[in-house]
Design goal:
Blueprint lengths: L13 E3 L5 E4 L3 E4 L5 E3 L2 E3 L1 E7 L2 E5 L12 E5 L6 E7 L7 H4 L9 E8 L4 E10 L2 E10 L5 E7 L12 E5 L4 E5 L5 E4 L5 E5 L2 E11 L2 E3 L5 E3 L5 E5 L7 E9 L6 E10 L2 E5 L5 E3 L2 E3 L6 E3 L2 E6 L2 E8 L2 E7 L3 E9 L15 H4 L23 H8 L17 H11 L8 H14 L8 H5 L16 E5 L6 E5 L1 H8 L9 E2 L3 E7 H6 L7 E2 L8 E2 L5 E7 L7 E5 L2 E10 L14 E9 L4 E6 L4 E8 L2 E10 L19 E9 L6 E11 L9 E6 L2 E2 L7 E3 L6 E7 L11 E10 L27 E2 L3 E2 L1
Helix pairs in contact: 3-4, 4-5
Length: 773
């Protein structure tokens, strides 16, 4: 028989056909066509399974032909032929018009696998499998060797059982939303729901994405990981379709200054803030809410709380958002229409952290970076082994749906730097387990294998802003600890609290509750010198304040040092005579206030003025001093501008203060004198009070209540300077004295003496702006 392709015959059961060589095959054979592989359905084939049986020639790509199972095969009647031949032609010479007749073929012909045989009726039948790279075409031809009349049929190669035109949907599963389509370039395209979606049924894909925020780490909806290095507020989730909704995350330090943890989550809904905080506390704006396992509707948000944490759920514009927070981990689940945009740390990973940082909700120093020495007690190898439990059973059953690697990386990065306390050795495992549960993986037995609990750590323990909840001992009781950065400013000064606050009539010292607990000091056992004076605890900040004032000195010791007045008290532990032993050091914290005594003030009053008011500020004291004259002993008849005062008429002058605390300070009049000129240093001068006492030379002068309170008065008989009929100016000098001191001047017994300046009885005197004869 003459060869179709003019080859030399070589029958084989396993045949390798190289480019340019022809082979004759007479029995079932596997033909190696790796030098010209054929690609269809995106699969590349390098072998052909050839068989001549039952009057058919079958050429298959994935195993020998079976009438029961079929396969990807070319099946052609052999028409009595006993052999067939293969030929691989490199280059593009055997296109035979395939590209012209198949316009969807975009690539150039690289090589051809030619298959042909002569039938007993002198008809040549052949197939050309043309390799166009990622595309392939089948050219079927037949011609009579006698008449040389030929017929060619061109098909783009899609399958060898059925041929599909471009754009045909080959198969579709409404329950899985999986479809197979022959695309425009004759390549099989598999389509299904996107990575953030799930099939709802009926070929409908919906958004179903989960974001996990645990410790300093965010695992976004695409499974990408990001880490927060500062203590700022960030946008976790937002979407352009909901401009009035946003989820914020706040990060703070705990035991180390250089590691941050998610501390709270806020839902901003239509201008209201719902804060999910540590310990399961939930606040609406500034009000604390009481929650239970039964959902409570607050501004369209369903809020509930159980032993695992707090859940907030709402539906907005066909998007269902569920936020869970247990004080350590926040998980946000989004369900809605396919293609919904997800922005924030949970969504668009291409945006930088600085773009998502919310400065208006952060402290001005939140971006400051800190560094601390490595913790030498941490065994990173052991930490890595524990974190890798996420790749073992029962966690491994979820690995195909939830990639464990971001959680493992977050776990190792954190625990190789931060001690495994406060439930942190379980935190990342628990976060992964809950993410799996949202995708219907129960992970039976994970808690017993890891020694973890599904319940929230530190549930219902509320700490202040500068505190966090932690373990007293590993696995033991919990309490509120000072955050590392907050505590550092006190530790630098070896202090337990803030500086003493000194005011005019009081003093106070505030100690930090969590620092006291660090020292194992029970604040309730502390008191001042007076054991009844104990600290007052602020339930919100846990700060303990000790104070005393003029009404209750609490045993305050008052001393003077030159111009200073020193108020001193001590915070100490309670002593009990019944205590035989003690296991704690005694606490003694001295605090004091030093106030400068007011400078002695000399005020000039012209006696022609019936009343003079002077405003005085000295040190912490701020008060007014009034000097007023009267014509009655009860000081009820004030001298005014129309009052006529006769020479030798008794006048009472009152020095009265307003604004002083009489339990703390006393007014002492040191001296008073009269002059004929406005200047207190002018002459002539006449003394009425000397060293706090009446001038012994003037028996009309009497001083009352001097050094006993915040006011005093004195009296004298009216006079004028000899040889002068002008004004008389009265000056007084006084000072303030601590009440604890003996402020009453010591005066000698009164003696009858003549006045230094004599007065004369002549004419009438009138008072207006000055005492005038």
């Amino acid at each position: 028989m003459k060869s179709v392709f003019q080859p030399a015959a070589l029958p084989l059961s396993c045949v390798s056909v190289s480019s340019g060589a022809q082979r004759f095959i007479t029995e079932s054979s596997v033909v190696n066509i790796s030098s010209c592989p054929i690609t269809y359905y995106g699969q590349q084939y390098e072998q052909l399974y050839v068989n001549m049986t039952s009057g058919y020639l079958t050429i298959c790509f994935n195993g020998f032909f079976s009438p029961e199972t079929g396969g990807d095969c070319l099946v052609q009647r052999s028409r009595g032929a006993q052999r067939f031949e293969f030929f691989i032609n490199p280059g593009n010479s055997l296109d035979y018009g395939a590209r012209e007749n198949l316009p969807t073929i975009q690539n150039s012909l690289q090589c051809t696998v030619a298959i042909g045989f002569d039938s007993i009726v002198s008809v040549v039948i052949g197939f050309l499998l043309n390799n166009y790279g990622t595309q392939a075409a089948l050219v079927f031809f037949t011609y009579s060797s006698d008449t040389l009349v030929s017929l060619s049929v061109y098909k783009q190669l899609h399958t060898f059982v059925n041929m599909y035109p471009p754009g045909t949907v080959i198969s579709s599963d409404p329950e899985t939303c999986l479809s197979l389509t022959c695309n425009e370039t004759a390549v099989l395209h598999t389509s299904s729901c996107g990575p953030l979606e799930r099939c709802q049924g009926n070929n409908i894909c919906v958004l179903d994405a989960t974001c996990t925020v645990t410790g300093p780490t965010i695992v976004d909806v695409r499974g990408q990981m990001n880490s927060i290095q500062d203590r700022c507020a960030y946008s976790l989730f937002s979407t352009p379709s909901l401009p009035d909704f946003q989820i914020l995350g706040y990060f703070k330090d705990q035991r180390r200054t250089d590691v941050s943890f998610v501390d709270s989550v806020t839902l901003r809904v239509d201008g209201h803030d719902i804060h999910l905080e540590q310990g399961g506390r939930v606040q609406l704006d500034d009000s604390t809410l009481t929650l239970s396992s039964s959902p409570q509707l607050v501004h369209g948000v369903q809020l509930s709380k159980d032993q695992t944490g707090v859940t907030a759920k709402l539906s907005l514009s066909n998007l269902t958002i569920s936020v869970f927070f247990d004080g350590d981990t926040a998980q946000i689940r989004l369900e809605g229409p396919a293609g919904s945009s997800v922005e924030g740390l949970c969504g668009n990973s291409s945006r930088s952290l600085s773009d998502l940082r919310l400065s208006e909700y952060s402290s001005t120093s939140c971006e400051m970076q800190y560094s601390e020495p490595a913790d030498s007690t941490i065994n990173c190898t052991s930490v890595t082994e524990r974190c890798n439990l996420l790749k073992e059973a029962p966690f491994s059953s979820c690995n195909s749906d939830i990639d464990p690697e971001p959680y493992i990386t977050a776990c190792t990065d954190t625990l190789c730097k931060y001690p495994a306390v406060d439930g942190l050795d379980c935190q990342f495992l628990k976060a992964y387990a809950r993410a799996c549960s949202l995708h219907n993986h129960t992970l039976d037995g994970w808690t017993s294998k890891t020694g973890c609990s599904s319940e929230a750590f530190c549930q219902d323990r509320t700490c202040s802003d500068h505190e966090f909840c932690g373990e007293k001992t590993v696995g033991g009781d919990t309490r509120c600890f000072c955050r590392a950065i907050f505590a550092s400013k006190y530790q630098a000064n070896n202090s337990l609290g803030d500086p003493t606050v000194c005011k005019e009539n009081s003093a106070s010292l505030t100690l930090v509750g969590c620092l006291l607990e660090d020292k194992d000091i029970d604040y309730s056992a502390l008191h001042l010198n007076d054991p009844t004076c104990r600290g007052q605890v602020d339930e919100l900040t846990h700060m303990v304040t000790f104070s005393f004032n003029s009404s209750n000195s609490c045993g305050t010791e008052v001393t003077t040092n030159n111009s200073q007045v020193i108020y001193k008290n001590t915070i100490m532990t309670q002593n009990s005579s019944s205590d035989i032993i003690t296991r704690h050091d005694q606490v003694y914290i001295d605090f004091s206030c030093i106030q400068t005594q007011p400078d002695i003030k000399t005020e000039t009053f012209r006696i022609r003025d019936s009343s003079v008011i002077q405003h005085i500020t000295s040190g912490v004291w701020d008060y007014t001093l009034t000097m007023q004259s009267f014509t009655s002993a009860g000081r009820t008849q004030a001298v005014d501008f129309s009052t006529e005062v006769q020479l030798d008429q008794k006048i009472w002058v009152e020095l009265k203060t307003d604004g002083l605390d009489g339990d703390v300070v006393i007014v002492v009049t040191d001296s008073c004198w009269a002059t004929g000129q406005a200047s207190p240093d002018s002459t002539p001068r006449y003394d009425l009070i000397i060293n706090g006492c009446a001038n012994p030379a003037d028996q009309t002068v009497q001083v009352e209540d001097n050094g006993l309170g915040t006011s005093n008065y004195f009296s004298f008989n009216m006079f004028q300077f000899t040889g002068s009929s002008g004004d008389v100016y009265l000056h007084c000098k006084l000072h303030l004295c601590p009440k604890q001191n003996n402020c009453v001047p010591t005066c000698p017994a009164a003696a009858h003496r003549r006045r230094y300046a004599r007065s004369r009885y002549e004419g009438e005197a009138f008072i207006s702006m000055a005492w005038t004869h």
